[in-house]
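@channel sequence for tomorrow's demo:
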Amino acid sequence: MENVKWGLKKLSRKMKAAMATLVLLGIELQAQAQDGNAGINEANSKVRSYFASGTNLMYAVGALLGLIGAVKVYQKWNAGDPDTSKVAAAWFGSCVFLVVVATVIKSFFGV
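structure tokens (generated this afternoon):
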């Protein structure tokens, strides 16, 4: 009978320790919880801070594609290919599209 009492005491100590751990964990999680609006505002400010760099990157990619396109059109023109104007229009259109998209997004979001 004494073994059963000792086993219950041991089990109750383990349960007390488990309950204390759960309570402390709950308090810690509650202390770490943040306001949802604060998190959204922080994410918004971080994305807006990267936006100017992303726009400049799009302009740089457009310029690089423009140079590559100019070289390809020049090669086709020198080779006498009949579809030179179609290739030139496609490359020029893609470069203009990149610049326009970057500018429109910039003005749309007011950054």
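heads up for whoever presents: Residues 1-33 form one domain.
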